[in-house]
Amino acid sequence: xxxxxxxxxxxxxxxxxxxxxxxxxxxxxxxxxxxxxxxxxxxxxxxxxxxxxxxxxxxxxxxxxxxxxxxxxxxxxxxxxxxxxxxxxxxxxxxxxxxxxxxxxxxxxxxxxxxxxxxxxxxxxxxxxxxxxxxxxxxxxxxxxxxxxxxxxxxxxxxxxxxxxxxxxxxxxxxxxxxxxxxxxxxxxxxxxxxxxxxxxxxxxxxxxxxxxxxxxxxxxxxxxxxxxxxxxxxxxxxxxxxxxxxxxxxxxxxxxxxxxxxxxxxxxxxxxxxxxxxxxxxxxxxxxxxxxxxxxxxxxxxxxxxxxxxxxxxxxxxxxxxxxxxxxxxxxxxxxxxxxxxxxxxxxxxxx
Length: 353
Ligand code: SAM
Hints:
Layout: H1 9-12, H2 16-34, E1 37-47, H3 73-82, E2 90-95, H4 99-116, E3 120-124, H5 130-139, E4 143-145, H6 153-158, H7 165-177, E5 181-188, H8 195-207, E6 212-217, H9 234-247, H10 258-262, H11 267-272, E7 278-282, H12 286-289, H13 304-313, E8 317-318, H14 323-329, H15 342-351
Helix pairs in contact: 2-9, 3-4, 4-5, 7-15
Bound molecules: S-adenosylmethionine (SAM).
């Protein structure tokens, strides 16, 4: 690490004792800041229609093999209001980039959740008009997940990632400046990614007004131009997560389900040993979730049982406070390291430009 907390390439590729030391340092910082509490959210994947054509993603618009669906708002509201596991404190609404789903499913669902529960609401629905962001916020969502995918603009364009790199970064800044808690992130192990690209990801993440960040290992998606590319090394993604935690002990870092595709059976749990403090239960109705194709048709579904078992096995406990509340107060179940909540500082940064 240098004085700004940027990792050295060697640490991102470390193994053995050096890797253990990196991960231990990350976990110790997480415990110091968050105790043994882990946030548990539910995700519902409301639509697999997508107007974008990212070459890494199975939902890309050119994929004609995919049966497209939009979930029904009432069905999802009933599911989330009446059948949400008690450990779930937040709901994440995810979709391909589909303005119809935002209007007809996401916004009514956010309203139902806001009116009937105290759960926090996050959205991960891609790029939209500023008025649409404002409508989602006014409906009651407070966390926006918008990954920058790669900090290399030429690579971003080559991967046909959404709109343009400049637009993606501009919207991340706009969302933060208008009061959203923004989580971003990148894909580790993308075909063509260099060490210099990896380091740029850290630099960009550190510069942006973020409250959280995620790292997904690259999984060659079925029915995509990159389907024959090699899967990311899980250790690279885990080392990136640890280095991000060391760079920014205050961030929310999820253990993503793709870690279990990169290392079946243990990748996800290793994420919890690498500084992650957020896990996600998949509550997408089973009749449609097979068609929410980011990677493989054979999905690894994070059920409540799997999640709670993984948390307990790591000696952790679900946070009883929501992520949304944490962002407002900087406290997890009364556990407060005495540091000011990062997000407050970033609100000021964002407004000051
Ligand atoms: N459409 C929204 C957007 O663009 O933000 C949200 C849904 S998008 C499918 C969610 C995330 O999945 C992307 O931001 C990307 O990081 C990740 N993703 C998609 N395909 C992937 C792959 N093959 N490997 C790893 N991550 C992938």
